[in-house]
Specification:
mainly beta, four-stranded mixed sheet, 196 residues, elongated, ten-stranded antiparallel sheet
Length: 196
């Protein structure tokens, strides 16, 4: 995170975060490394906040934030993810490719702006008026596949199944505006607002 003040009335904050991960499939004594998957990915999450003191009673804020994650599944030994998987019904040994693979991503981008107006004595009370707008868009998508799965008795094929890869995903967008007032009178604090 980085904070920088242009002057006493204008400042900016820039930050980012990223998680890198690798999660292997649970192994068994009878499963070859090529038949185990490794789920890996990362999710950079940047953000920027700008704050401006317009005058002693008015503050403006603008914010950007994002999340951009990617993930995939590859064989634990680094081989090709698309292939045939074999299970020997005599011994229980599993060889070949992982049973499943995918390439996916999820993402969200958001912007928000807000103006806050402070009033020490308006209609006999203190007020924090806020007017703001929020916008966000995002979604997720993934390409998924099950590898051919073949059961054998020793070296003799018995039966198997196959399935075509498929895509899944979606998108979303949101827009909101709001007005808000925090009213303080003595020991009483009342918050009222409207959001659309």
């Amino acid at each position: 995170k980085l904070n920088y003040s242009f002057n006493q009335n204008h400042r900016i904050q820039v930050q980012t975060h990223d998680d890198f991960y690798e999660i292997p499939e649970r192994a068994t004594a009878r499963t070859a490394p090529s038949a185990l998957w490794l789920n890996s990915g990362h999710n950079p999450s940047p953000g920027v906040l700008y704050t401006a003191v317009v005058n002693p009673t008015t503050v403006f804020e603008a914010r950007y934030s994002g999340f951009y994650g990617t993930a995939d599944t590859l064989p634990l030994n680094g081989g090709p993810k698309i292939g045939r998987r074999f299970q020997d019904l005599d011994t229980g040994n599993i060889t070949g490719a992982p049973y499943y693979w995918y390439d996916g991503k999820s993402f969200k981008t958001a912007f928000a702006g807000k103006v806050t107006k402070y009033a020490d004595n308006f209609l006999g009370a203190q007020h924090d008026f806020k007017v703001g707008v929020q916008y966000n868009s995002g979604g997720g998508e993934s390409l998924n596949g099950y590898n051919d799965y073949i059961y054998t008795y020793g070296s003799t094929p018995a039966y198997g199944y196959t399935q075509n890869p498929y895509w899944s995903g979606g998108r979303m967008r949101g827009l909101g505006v709001y007005v808000d007032d925090t009213i303080r009178k003595g020991r009483l604090t009342l918050n009222v607002g409207l959001r659309f």
